[in-house]
Amino acid sequence: MAETTREPEPQRTPNIPDTGGGGIDRGLHRTLDWKGAFWIASGVPALVLFSIGAIAATVGAPSPLVWTVSIIFGLLQSFVWAEIAGLFPSKSGGASVYGAMAWVRYAKPVAPLSVWCNWLAWSPVLTVGSGLAAGYVLTALFPAEATINTWSMTLLPLGFIQEGLEVRLNAQFVIAALFLLLVFGLQHGGILRAARVQTVIGLAVLVPLLVIGVVPLITGDVVAANFAPFVPLSGAWDASGWTLFAGGLFLAAWSAYAFETSICYTAEFRNPGRDTVRAILSAGIACLVIYTLVPFAFQGALGVERLTQDDIVDGNGVGQAMTEIVGGGPVVANLLIVMLVLALLLTIMTTMAGSSRTLYQGSRDGWLPRFLSRTNQHGAPTRAMWTDLGFNLVLLLLSDYVFVLATSTVCYMIFNFLNLNAGWMHRVDNPDAPRPYRAPTALIAIGTVLAFVNALLLGWGANVYGGGALATGLIAAAIVVPVFYYRHKVVDGGVFPPSFSDDLPAENGEAGAVVLPRRAGIRPYLVLGGGVVVVIIGQLLAAAGS
Fold first, then answer.
1. Rounded to two decimals, what is the model's pTM?
2. Which of 184, 200, 124 is nearest to 378 (CA)?
3. Residue-by-residue DSSP string for 48-75
């Protein structure tokens, strides 16, 4: 079918009152196609470098299997995301926003919990990515013993949360903050300009990642002995070994599931029905290749002992490790450092684009504070972007990025549990709603099963990375409940904004309230109760394996 070449008028959001700053809020602009969304999401494959050492140090020889299983889970889940995204061509913000519309009918606080947990999971990529990029720059330019690398000033000890955790100021923080400001400037010009920039950077990153994954296989540098004995670090596939494996799957999910960010831009797609499914499946296939090959090549060429050294676990030695894999001297090493910095900038751009739109749409739909719903003349949600920036400048002051990662993964697993169940809930409650893409029913069922697998991993694997990770993540998730009730009850008078019911059949109730159909009966409540039970079972398994 022929497609029109005339670009549609930018979407307006007249139902959002002016929250200050002057001018007319023109909303998000429909300027993006699926290829642009793919390149925006092209920063996700590089996330494997964030925790490849941490997972190897947790699991041991089976760590490549962890990555393979995790990315397969993510790919199976993506079919659920693709279907529910197609239901909401007018909404931005990704799967959490679309899933929230399933849960709000049954438990109002659960809906903003989904959106909030997704943002808390994604936003710290800005911290981890910019921090690692700053570390690479400092390592490349200055000796390890140089004052600029060793100077650090403790502002607040947080050992009561996690041993060794503190708020500190150092050179890494300063350089990382400059990286974040650079990305903010690029994103300020709107999604289309960001996509064009990321197309160039994406090519410069994905090709070297493929080289790293393929070259050792061609040269014969992958050594079978580096996978033996194929048992966890505990020494056997016993209760302790399976707990370590669960911990690896838990942390890998933060990276391996993350290509769902490619559907954060539904309201900016020129053709949402076509572009949504193409964007997420193409991004998923790219991640399947990278997440399978790169961990296998790293371990096969370097061995578990090298992967578990401190410099790879904290991320700062990944560039040197890549040099060891492909060979070469200082020139190659410096080129790889440049590539890694570009890769990290790409992931930061991907994250700021996606997570800011989650805040923006959460505000438009009445979940989050109203001030986040404003865009600039380019259609960029700048207030949400400033919020992202400020939050991550605070996180950058923390001394342990693996703890930040584990805590944000707690939130990510909560989001995944809720939204995978939203797939069947939308089928039940909105059977006649237009679905540009309808996933096979078997994949919707598999997504539901994986929701409970993720809940099990949440209880079983979170505290492998420190006893405070699960508790801190749950507390961070709960913060949204009073925030939502203040917005909904005090600011909005108990009535959701008009944009809340965009794209779905709805009726007007009393006092102008929107009423969405409820056909699932008690099943959503049984799901919530079952999720809690499964998390507790995971905790019991973790205790047995400790």
1. 0.85
2. 184
3. HHHHHHHHHHHHBTTHHHHHHHHHHHHH
